[in-house]
């Protein structure tokens, strides 16, 4: 199995947790530590100088260049951005030809905001990944998104490298709850042979991780999803979260994949 780290996200602020890496050099430094702790893939969001979400290609390129120079992590760019990012900016991210990108399968309430993903936009994103040879990670925030994924695959065809990889994002206020029963249902509804990981937001982080391990799933952890390490303690940095996930994985006696092994599983070209 493998661990993805999502170090930054688009919504959280340093006031909530000063450990979130926002600027490219901070993200790269945490990426290096996370790879050493056991991560194989990194899910990247960009922030501007003020620390707000940006999909500026210059910022994203700087992060990608730094991560590629200092680690072997599989690079996944977010096309989700923040709830406020425009469709055209989210689509333009693919011009950077990352190895992987996220694609969310439907619109979902996101706390008091709306994370908008109309199906024509989702389809356009997906078609572009096929043209460019990018491995999509299908983000499912709700059970309905799993059904939309199956319809998308039926309509458009298989992904660029024929690997269907999904991430179940659980516990967003407005999405599916982060608990074992829902994970069992969502996992059961995925296309046969799909690769999958799960991530629990906030308080659902540990229950989702335990349930995913029990179901032979992969894990996504990181400060995009969780800012408290325990009810009384803030997360120090992303390495701390990857360390804990790697410890649990070892306890569960599941070998961890390296980034290059994940590349091979995703049928991506090997990196020099
Ligand atoms: N920030 C969320 C609204 C993704 O990266 O593709 C969307 C998100 C999903 O984080
Ligand atoms: Zn994200």
Strand content: 15-25%
Q: In which range does the helix fraction lie?
A: 25-40%
Rounded to the nearest angstrom, the distance between the terminal CA atoms is 23 Å
Largest sheet: 8 strands, parallel, barrel
Please name the CATH topology. TIM Barrel
Q: How many runs of DSSP E, i.e. beta strands?
A: 14
Number of DSSP helices?
Answer: 9
List the topology elements.
Blueprint (H helix, E strand, L loop, with lengths): L2 E3 L18 H14 L3 E4 L1 E2 L5 E2 L2 H14 L3 E4 L9 H6 L7 E5 L3 E3 L2 E3 L3 H14 L2 E6 L2 H14 L8 E6 L9 H10 L5 E6 L4 H10 L3 E4 L6 E3 L2 E2 L3 H14 L7 H7 L7
Parallel strand pairs: 1-2, 1-12, 2-5, 5-6, 6-9, 9-10, 10-11, 11-12
Antiparallel strand pairs: 3-4, 7-8, 13-14
Helix pairs in contact: 1-2, 1-8
Bound molecules: (5S)-5-amino-3-OXO-hexanoic acid and zinc ion.
The site of zinc ion has 8 residues, from loops.
Molecular structure report:
Helices cover 38% and strands 19% of the residues. It has 272 residues and is an alpha/beta fold. It has one domain (3-266): Aldolase class I (TIM Barrel). An 8-stranded parallel β-barrel has the order 1-2-5-6-9-10-11-12, surrounded by 8 helices. A two-stranded antiparallel sheet has the order 3-4. A hairpin with a 5-residue loop joins strand 3 and strand 4 (53-54). Helix 1 runs parallel beside helix 2 and helix 1 (24-37) runs parallel beside helix 8 (238-251). It is globular. Residues 9-11, 78-80, 82-83, 102, 104, 110, 115, 139 line the site of (5S)-5-amino-3-OXO-hexanoic acid (KMH).
